[in-house]
From TrEMBL:
The chain crosses the membrane at residues 12-31, 43-65, 86-104, 135-158, 165-183, 189-206. Pfam families: Rce1-like. Residues 130-221 form the CAAX prenyl protease 2/Lysostaphin resistance protein A-like domain. It comes from Secundilactobacillus collinoides. Belongs to the UPF0177 family. GO terms for biological process: CAAX-box protein maturation. InterPro entries: CAAX_protease, Rce1/LyrA-like_dom. This is CAAX prenyl protease 2/Lysostaphin resistance protein A-like domain-containing protein.
Length: 225
C-alpha cells in the first residue's frame, strides 16, 4: 500500500508539472498580448520566447509520451492509418461536439444559462493580438492539451484496459479538463467537461492521439470561425 501511494503521488506531481509547463508557455502569449498595444517590441520578444519554448515542450511531450507507451501500453495506443471510414467516424465525433456547443449557445441565447465568464476574456485577448492568439488556440493548444488531458492522464492513472478504468478515466479526465477551463465549479464547467468527455471517448475509441488532436483542432477552428 505504501509503495502504491508513493507511486501515485509521484504521478500526480508529474502530471501537475506537465500542466504547469503548458501554462507557462500559454502565459508567455498572454504577456505578449498585454504588451501588444503599449509596447510592440516587448510583445514581439515574448512571442519569440513563446515559439522557442513551444518547440522544446512539443519535443519533450512527444518523447515522454512515446517512452511511456514503450514501458507499458495495455490500451494498445499507436499510430493507425487514416482511412475514409475512420475520417467519417472522426467527423461523427465532431458533430457530437458541435451538438453540445449549439445546445449550450441556445440555452445562453434564451437566458437559461449565463455566458461563460472566460469567453469574453478570450475574445478580448484575441482582439489584441489576433494572429498569434488564434494560432495558439487552433494549433498549439489542441496538441498540448491532448498530450496532457488524454495521453499522459491515461498513462499515469488509468492504464489498465478494463471497463471500470475506461469509464472512470473518461469521466475524471473530462471533469479536470472542464475545471481547468473555468477554474471554478459551475454549469459552465459541465459544458467544458462535456467536450472533454467526447475527446476522451475519441481517444479511447481510435487509440491514436493524432485523431484526438485533429478533433480538438477542428473544434477550436470552428469556434473561431
Amino acid at each position: 500500500m505504501t509503495a502504491y501511494l508513493k507511486r501515485q503521488t509521484m504521478r500526480i506531481i508529474a502530471f501537475i508539472m506537465l500542466l504547469i509547463i503548458y501554462l507557462i508557455n500559454s502565459g508567455q502569449l498572454t504577456t505578449a498580448t498585454e504588451y501588444a498595444k503599449k509596447n510592440p517590441a516587448i510583445a514581439t520578444k515574448y512571442i519569440g520566447i513563446m515559439l522557442m519554448t513551444m518547440a522544446v515542450i512539443l519535443a519533450l511531450f512527444a518523447w515522454l509520451y512515446r517512452r511511456q507507451l514503450q514501458r507499458g501500453n495495455p490500451h494498445h495506443f499507436k499510430k493507425r492509418p487514416f482511412t475514409i471510414k475512420s475520417i467519417l467516424q472522426l467527423f461523427a465525433f465532431f458533430i457530437g461536439m458541435l451538438a453540445v456547443q449549439v445546445l449550450w449557445s441556445q440555452l445562453i441565447v434564451h437566458h437559461i444559462l449565463p455566458m461563460p465568464t472566460n469567453q469574453s476574456e478570450v475574445d478580448s485577448q484575441a482582439l489584441q493580438l489576433p494572429f498569434w492568439n488564434n494560432f495558439y488556440s487552433i494549433v498549439a493548444a489542441p496538441v498540448f492539451e491532448e498530450f496532457i488531458f488524454r495521453g499522459f492522464f491515461f498513462n499515469f492513472f488509468f492504464a489498465k484496459n478494463n471497463r471500470r478504468n475506461i469509464v472512470l478515466g473518461i469521466l475524471i479526465s473530462g471533469f479536470i479538463f472542464g475545471f481547468l477551463h473555468t477554474f471554478s465549479f459551475s454549469v459552465t464547467t459541465l459544458f467544458y467537461s462535456g467536450l472533454g468527455w467526447i475527446l476522451a471517448s475519441c481517444y479511447l475509441y481510435f487509440k491514436d492521439i493524432r485523431y484526438d488532436m485533429a478533433l480538438h483542432f477542428m473544434n477550436n477552428l470552428w469556434s473561431i470561425l
